[in-house]
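Note to self: keep these together.
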Amino acid sequence: MKKSSKKWLSLLSIMALGNLTPINILAEDSTSVEETSIETQEVKSDDSTTTESSNEGTSKVEYASEYLEKYQEQGVNFEEYGFVWGDEFEGDQLNRDDWNVELHEPGWVNEEWQEYIDDEKVLQVNDGKLVIQPVKESVDGQDLYYSGRVNTQNKQNFKYGFFEAKVRVPKGQGYLPAFWLMSADENVYGQWPRAGEIDIMEIHGSDTTKSYGTIHYGNPHRESQGEMQLTKGDFNEEYHIFALEWLPGKINWFVDGQLIHSESEWYSKTEGQGEITYPAPFDSEFYVTLNLAVGGSWIGYPDDSTEFEGQSFDIDYVRVYQKETYDENVKKPLQEFTAREADESGNYIVNGDFSESEELLDEDNWVFLTTQGGEAEASIADNQLSINTTSAGEVDYSVQLVQANLPMEQNYQYQVSFTAWSDQERLVKVNLTGPDNGYIRYFEEQELELTSEPQMFEFEFTMNEASDENGRLEFNLGAYDEASPFYLKGVSVKRLEKTEASDTAESKTVLSDGNYVYNGKFQEGDYHIGFWQWDGGSIEEAISPLEDGRRLIIAGGKESTLMQEQLPLDAGVEYEFSLDIEAEEDFTLKGKIGESTFELPVEKGLNPYRYSFTLEENQIDNTDLILNFDNVNEVRVDNVKVQENRLIKNGSFDAGLTGYNAFMDASANATVVVDSLNEDNAADFTIYNTGDQAWKIQLIQEQVPLIKGKTYRLTFKAKSSVDRSIMYALQRDGKSDDVWTTYLPEQIVPLKADYQEYSYEFAMEEPDDLQAMLSISLGAVEDKVIEQEHRVVIDDIELEEVN
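Structure:
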């Protein structure tokens, strides 16, 4: 449905009109696995930050929820909500103004089998429903699988809101239908999971009476998940309504009006850098996705019992409601770590001597699990546990023995010990993981060789991650060549001493992106101004909202100072200080780094500024950065950096796309993200249409200093998923006068499926240009238009002075 004019008639007012009565149209009872209160997050009443909904509201009564009263009973304040967007899937075509159709090869994520295609055989709109139909075809004796995946990215993005979908799911081994939200711009906080993911509904086709609601976040990956188990009915046999309320600092999941899960604790962090101010990452725009996966590492794969005819993911509608404003000034909840008591010997393992018989199939103490083709039996007798495997399965956890509820406290050392053997030589993999934290491993996995003689194994590790009350010891026996037995006794996990380093404050060091300034983007700490000292006004109001790029606002009419203490700089190294300033008028910025003082003439408008310096040995006792703004009109500051002085900044892309401008002309179609999942941080372009000229897709870095008479060498590496060429050049920045003098002539190079390194040496024969521009063109190079979806990946860009 298209958005109409903004009319914020609340849903409760809609109910009062009398032509809609909230009724529970489903007869099934629902029992939530997790009962969570839905109290509103406490926020500050003064100096609060509010954000306005960017989507327009409507008063159409037909969009009132069928479960309005149940939501209201559980604390959802619908007096504040209005309908902003939805799709009732009327007509016979998918509305391409609202939806993108994704195209992906098999195995793109999660080891899934399907290919996502744009075809009526997998995506149909009829009878007021969107139907995602899985298809299996046999070609030359090979089974091929197809399905559909659609999203609203950059067509309908949302920041906060109440999301609903009424759906019916397919039944069958290997199906995974999903209704979920993803970050509209992964460059804000980084690639998944740092950017966040909100799964409103996922259901395994092998059990269509249970649904899951999950958030993914953090680095390393963390998750929080709730479940809903039907006591009557089936998600495959009737339509059910799945909903999510996303607030600043609070996310609530509902199934058929029943609250099943709530979460307030999450974070966004880049390894080697700071934690972003809460409630990041769930304070940026997300988009809606609907898809049906066929097979995958979580759900397993289709088998002979899986039917394709008559099974589909049917969506009756998707609706989104929002408040006019949201108060984002929320505090992250404090979590207290409570460690349960160990036994008299200090052992946290329950029944580690196997003196008591256990069922092994419940969730108490020792639990024995099989999955993905694993077949085995386990038993306890004579103070030992025995596992006899008949089929090792496909993965190491196909046959698995675990014990959870082990308290792991940060900065403590732990000792794991046990005795194990077999009837013959075999391997066992041992680890201690966090099932509530994405199964993060708390020490490097131990792969142990067993023999027919009992051996005692003992090792120690330090818990470096955040404290976890639910650590899990795992013995993984699957995916082994031979189905040999496993015997175990005398298992213990004991806490030792607290590490000495944990009691001392961590000294500053260079960040992973090469910056010596902490929180240079103003998105860490309380009110986003962590690590800085600021005397220019109210701390609560110092940083602008995310929609403005989170910049330091310097109000006019008074003197103000921004300071960061003790940058971890060394003597004899050439550094470059840089920042972006947007000013209403010209002024002079006065600064000091240690004993090195400088003045930068600032011009009206938004511009980058740089200053190079080297500290002597006698100057490094004081390495404070101080910036003075004297009686200036309103100024906005961002991207404060001190880095080692290099001609190309962030050539490794360790700092995301900082320093680059990814240009896409409106006639082309492409996206770019810094890929840290499949690459070691690289600029990853997904190109759907190159446009008709080379320049219509570009990766650009400005402010590259070139000196007349010097010789330079530019190197980088690149690859493409299709045969194609790209073009690169170093030239004058001609945006102001359309003069684009080339210094490194345009070079066209062919790309291959694997990385190739490219290099070009040139002499700077023109006058000095301290603001030259590097451009790498990925559009229609040599006039070759490519409308096939493909990837181009670029990394390790370096410009060095040869002489």
